[in-house]
Give the backbone structure.
Amino acid sequence: MLYEIMLMIIGFILLIKGADFVVKGASNIAKKFHLSEMLIGIVIVGIGTSLPEIIVTVKSSLTGNPDIIIGNSIGSCICNLLLVIGVASVCNPLKLDKRILQVHLPVSVFSILMLAIFCNFGTGNQIISQTESWILLAFAIVYILYTVYEGKSEVQENNGTQTSEITFIWILIYIVLGVVGLKFGADFVVNGAIAIAEAFGVSESIISMTIVSLGTSLPEIVTCIIATIKKESDLAIGNVIGSNIFNICLLPAVGAMIKPIHYDLEFNRSLLFLLMITIYLLIFDLFRNRRMISRNHGIIFILLFCLYVSCLF
């Protein structure tokens, strides 16, 4: 058992450092092309910090563990919204940008509803088919293209974006090392999670929604805390919302492309909880015109996450 725990710890370290290197490389590419902070946060950092989840998804699909895919997808999103935003806003209150409220959060709500429909009323009997995976992938690509267009439009209005001084050789080194770290980290996390679940008689779905989702969300937590301390709210919130949309669309899509995913109806409660949290953030502006997530809200979010995890067992 000690071996499996050490395996998971090493895996999480590799995932975090791997994601950090990939994000650093991708962010410097974005800076070289003068892309906006919102675009970097949602697309570049959002995808970068979702890479641990994506790699874990590929590994889980190849080894025939669909519960880890869905559990990690939903669990990571809940962790992002409650724990990541909660911790970040406790460090420094976060302000919700109008574009987040008008565009990106509605897209997040729609992606959750789309996944729920595919899982419960899709072409298969609680099966995410390869056809549905292509729809999810297409939706994610359209969202990325729109965000890139939006980010470029913003840069044309404001040309103050910082330029990267790192050469392309170093950027390439960062990305290659990051991908290697993500690959081996995912192997260790998945293998360790399965072994622990079998040893304690705990279902893979619970392990994936707690240990695995928390571990693969560590890059988002670190990124958000750093961005919040630097008072870069757009980067922090954009990272969370972008990562959630990619988790909901890309993880099931990638997994189902490799092998159709069987959906356990037990996940519906967590999926509904995720939808409620996202809708709350969407209508947050109706209750507080300042659109500010205060420290008190952050503490409530953290407590809600702890309550959610405790209810799983």
